[in-house]
């Protein structure tokens, strides 16, 4: 028996060792997650643009609403101005311009210009924002965001493409949706929940990304809960689990190919 026990322990240690990530694997997985976090942050920033104007009030004439919304912009944000443009019988636009030095909104810095199109009437309104003239935290986006309201439900979307901040040669595309939370404003509130598929593209190829229930607090870079899963171009599976206890110290739990997870710091 004395001879068998050490042998069993050795076998167990070897098995556990096979499940542990090497330093090289940890470093590669962390770099992949950092790119995903940076891309999700940019997408969240694009959605936050919708919060600079009030949500359309169902039952109010469109022209009356957009005029009131534009008039209130400068009072709410001294670094921004807005004008109304009538496009046609069913469409009005609010063109918002941020000061050259930038404007801090919901923990993000906006510069440039964004156009909000309001299309429809009192029973159904579609709002689209074109962000191609806008920079979020100094980074340009090719993005369309918007929402539909006054129908059976409020729908939000964000189709965002851009360069991954701080990662030269890497780009991303996320088809984002905003989750609904009871009692929390969907647009312009203190929290935002992001879901959706996407892609990260770099010198090594394209990684498929899925973000699920990423819960953001205003002004925070990391989501405090939720998951991000990446199927990499090399055929690996990287999963990041965001937890409130780790979020507070800038860390995330990462696993690779189902191996034992490790906790790593995330660098912005």
Which stretches of 5+ consecutive residues score pLDDT under 50? 1-17
Order of helices and strands: HHHHEEEEEEEEEEEEEHEE
Distance from N terminus to C terminus (CA atoms, Å) equals 54 Å
Helix content: 10-25%
How much of the sequence lies in strands comes to over 45%
Mean pLDDT: 86
Quick one: biggest sheet? 15 strands, antiparallel
Computed structural class: alpha+beta
Task: Specify the number of helices.
Answer: 5
Total strands: 15
Rg: 22 Å
Net shape: elongated
Output the keywords.
268 residues; 15-stranded antiparallel beta sheet
Please, could you describe this protein's structure?
With 268 residues, the protein is of the alpha+beta class. The protein has one domain (36-265). Helix content is 22%, strand content 45%. It is built from five helices and 15 strands. It has a 15-stranded antiparallel beta sheet that branches. This is Lipoprotein. It comes from Pyxidicoccus fallax.
What is the strand and helix layout of this fold?
Layout (H helix, E strand, L loop, with lengths): L3 H16 L3 H26 L13 H10 L1 H4 L3 E9 L2 E15 L2 E13 L4 E6 L3 E3 L2 E2 L1 E8 L5 E9 L7 E8 L12 E12 L2 E13 L7 E7 L5 E6 L1 H4 L3 E6 L5 E4 L3
Antiparallel strand pairs: 1-2, 2-3, 3-4, 3-5, 4-7, 5-6, 7-8, 8-9, 9-10, 10-11, 11-12, 12-13, 13-14, 14-15
